[in-house]
UniProtKB/TrEMBL annotation:
Residues the entry annotates as binding Mn(2+): H108, H110, E115, H156
Signal peptide: 1-21
Name under which the protein is recorded: Germin-like protein
GO cellular component, as recorded: apoplast
Keyword Phosphoprotein applies: no
InterPro entries on file: Cupin_1, Germin, Germin_Mn-BS, RmlC-like_jellyroll, RmlC_Cupin_sf
PROSITE patterns tied to this protein: GERMIN
């Protein structure tokens, strides 16, 4: 009887492992965001597929530098679902970040996304603070062509440490990664 229970338990464990490892296919090819709909799911409601056009899947303007003449010396140009409706439900987004000399993207986190940053011009000091098992600061100076990943939810920053302007492209694992600016959160209330 004990061996029979062991066999059944093993079979159930294997079946559960197979089921939890399965990633279902999407139910539809795409779900272009319909910002006029009041319905909200995991993302925005889908636009009627008969109204979908190529411009719902296209964004122009990442080649244009952002205005860095502000207190931080940085500018962000997001390509999230609000700017590119075709991203809805796809779980990805991106942004262009421009940095004046010594420009800073201050400590912040993305509660719903891992970020991978690629330096396209300049030299950046980047880093994040770990939370487990101890709080550690992990930093690196990146050169043109270097890539760095910021794990989901961790506080991170970027600073231009080169003599001229810099810019990078970030890809994020969410159509709406969210951003929590640490200084505003701590001292803004």
């Amino acid at each position: 009887m004990a061996s029979r229970i062991l066999v059944i338990a093993s079979f159930i464990a294997i079946a559960v492992a197979i089921v939890t490892a399965f990633e279902p296919s999407p139910l539809q090819d795409f779900c272009v965001a319909d910002p006029t709909s009041s319905a909200r799911v995991n993302g925005l409601a889908c636009l009627d597929s008969k109204k979908v056009q190529a411009n719902h899947f296209s964004f122009s303007g990442l080649h244009i530098p952002g205005n860095t003449s502000n207190a931080l010396g940085s500018a962000l140009k997001p390509v999230f679902v609000a700017q590119l409706p075709g991203l809805n439900t796809l779980g990805i987004s991106m942004a262009r970040i421009d940095y004046a000399p010594w420009g800073l993207v201050p400590p912040h986190s993305h509660p719903r996304a891992t970020e991978i940053l690629t330096v396209l011009e300049g030299r950046l000091l980047v880093g994040f603070v770990t939370s487990n098992p101890e709080n550690r600061l992990i930093t690196k100076v990146l050169e043109k062509g270097d890539v760095f990943v910021f794990p989901i939810g961790l506080v991170h920053f970027q600073r231009n440490v080169g003599p001229g302007n810099a810019f990078s492209i970030s890809s994020l694992s969410s159509q709406n990664p969210g951003v929590i600016l640490i200084a505003n959160t701590l001292f803004g209330s």
